[in-house]
Amino acid sequence: MAVVLGYIVFAVSAVVLFQVLGANPHAPQSLMFMAGTVVYGIGFAILGGLIAARLAPARPRLHAVVVSLIIAAGATASLFSSPAGDATWSQWTALVLMAPSASLGSLLTRR
To answer: How far is CA 108 from CA 1, 32, 37, 101, in A?
Structure first.
């Protein structure tokens, strides 16, 4: 349950962001837009990892790492299923920056 909630925090935040902004995460975007969304995504990835770690019945670090792995798996699946010509900046940044950030969330918790 801890991992599921941690991942939901990350995933829902991304959906909400792109819906509110009316932006397509698979379209080319300006550098400022990409930078802003990456910082936002990293923040929510850390929060997702933190939540997973805090709610974990045992082994909090492992729960945050599993959230990281799910984020990475989703980004990888999206990369492989993207039509040719789609921008892949959001998938690459999720894979390289956001997924590892979820693991960092466990470092912010005290048990």
So the answer is: 19, 28, 22, 11
